[in-house]
Amino acid sequence: MNYAKKLLAQVGLEPERLEMFFLSSAEGAHFAEIATEMTERARRLGPNPLKNTKTVEPPKMEVEA
Amino acid sequence: MIVAEQKPLDEIKGMIADAEKVLILGCGTCVTVCFAGGEKEVSILASQLRMATQMAGQDKEIREFTVQRQCEYEYNELAVEHVRDADLVVSLACGIGVQTMTEQFPEKRTVPGLNTTFLGQPTEQGVWVERCQACGDCVLELTNGLCPVARCAKSLLNGPCGGSQRGICEVYAERETPCVWHEIYERAKTLGRLDKLLEPQPAKSWKTSRDGGQRKIVREDLRL
Amino acid sequence: MSDNTYLVGSNLEKALKAGYFVATGELGPPQSADRSVIEHKAGFLRGIVEAVNITDNQTAVVRMSSISVGSMLLQLGLEPTIQMTARDRNRIAIQSDLLGAYALGIRNLLCLTGDHQTFGNHPMSKNVHDMDSISMLQMVRDMRDGKKFQCGDPIKGQEPRFFLGAAANPFADPFEFRPYRLGKKAKAGASFIQTQIVFNVPKFADFMQRVVDLGFHEECYVLAGVAPIRSVGAAKYMATKVPGMEVDPEYIDRMTKATKGLPSPKEIETMDPKEAAQVKKARKEATENEGIQICVDVISECRKMPGVAGVHIMAIEWEEAVDEIVKQAKIGPKYDPARQNA
């Protein structure tokens, strides 16, 4: 996770946009908390700068073994 | 093995600034094993570059491909279509790969995405340490398997110098790097070969090293 | 060392061979092209020590070169011991510089490996280390005794003849190998050795005992490195920040107690400027006197040890202290009673 955040930071995106949480399907209330937290973060940080850019699918290529 | 690490993202961004179609070309040998330029690293770098260039409002196509070994023509041949389509190739191979690509596809510019650093050993997961300087005249017999050319900051043949304290080399600020001459001494003692260390060693000939000029080996018995 | 002829005939060699307890000094060149600094420092050292070492880009900081300063010292009436490190010059440059140094009249040479460039002000420079101190000794000895260059070519004409020295650090590790390494330097051509500064007398005594047991004191003259301490801060710095130096806590204690009886810095703040200045001066004098006394005490201890042929006084940036030290220790060409009739 730390590595992924570092990669985002290098690109110029805020690392807080990405987070990993562990929970089971029985933890409904916890899930709701997390969702709220991330929504708050997203609001605070502003829209994703990559939001309205075209989605680029890397062209399919065979990779040599 | 050859050890390398990726250049800072900003530096790579600078290199691709004028190109519209970029090919990130990885290598499946040394740089894969040191997690700097293999298929996975190519994919991550490509993603980062797409994100970064889009955020900057630029419209670039970033392609990915990895070959088995970028220092050999026959493997690079397999990437020929992707190379032809690209304006610029960012090689994630060592410096040898970058130059092979340059020779093989001179109409394209191939730029280095990595800094090739040294010849080294993975001592533990995630750690690589320099072990060999490719001096061309190996002295490992003299020191019973510990290289003073690569591992002594001053490449001494008659070490240790006065800066060896408690087995640690004074040159490195964090004071953790072992003094290889201390290790050479201890090993010679263990093996009962200390008498060899009492003989003054004359200055090394650096003719076989990079100092003598670019090196080349020709094996007539192997030529076609 | 046993016959009547001199290898080179410098004052240093003659004094050592005559068996006097020799004193050598040291001078650190300026980080500029200013000759007057040399003239100023030379004044403090003239006539009181056998020879004066001139450091070679010490700690890899760019300073006026050792050979050029050596030449100036000759003109000023002193005998130089130039230092040459393996860090900055390859064998071509070293041999070339030494041909010139001999032609300029320089006769004593200390061969060193050199502090690594990362310690200095140009860490980005290219490492040379074409050779080390020991292979350099071999090379220069062969130029003198074999009349040949390192490649084997004969030297046609006057060969450079240097009285050769090397450094030793009794306080580095592996401790048990250090006397053997001193022997290795003697074998490679060193006629004299100057050690790292001694501030741990028992450990140095242990080292010298081993050297004597191995017989190396008969192959080369060992000069113990000594230095005066200028302040408590300097003592603590040497104790903690200089790799390869060991300082007995007793000396730090003595330095701290040197100003006992005098008003403390806190008390000085309440005094009027004139009085404060006088007290500060008194404190400085008391501290410096103690620092010089410690040096004299170490010299006297080293003098008792078999195998020690003299001392090398390193009063860097405090060359004025050397006169007081040799005067109190009664050593050197001016103050040694044994020399008065010579």
Features:
heterotrimer; A: 65 residues; mainly alpha; 2 helices; globular; C: 342 residues; alpha/beta; TIM Barrel; 8-stranded parallel barrel; 8 strands; 43% helix
Give a verbal description of the structure.
The complex is a heterotrimer of chains A (65), B (224) and C (342). Chain A has 65 residues and is mainly α. Chain A has helices at 2-11, 28-45. Chain A has a domain at 2-45. Chain A starts with a helix and ends in a 20-residue tail after the last helix. The model of chain A has no long low-confidence stretch (mean pLDDT 83). Chain B is α/β, with parallel strands linked by helices and 224 residues long. Chain B is built from eight helices and nine strands. A four-stranded parallel beta sheet of chain B has the order 3-2-4-5, with helices on both faces. Helix content of chain C is 43%, strand content 13%. Chain C has helices at 11-17, 35-45, 66-75, 91-103, 133-145, 178-188, 201-213, 232-241, 249-257, 265-269, 273-304, 321-329, 332-335, and strands at 22-27, 52-54, 80-85, 108-112, 163-168, 192-197, 221-226, 308-313. In chain C, helix 8 (232-241) runs antiparallel to helix 9 (249-257) and helix 11 (273-304) crosses helix 12 (321-329). Chain C starts with 10 loop residues before the first helix and ends in a 7-residue tail after the last helix. The B-C interface holds B 153-167, 170-171, 173, 179, 182, 185-186, 197-204, 206 and C 86-87, 91, 113-116, 118-119, 127, 129-139, 150, 167-169, 172-174, 177, 180-181, 183-184, 187-188, 196, 243-244.
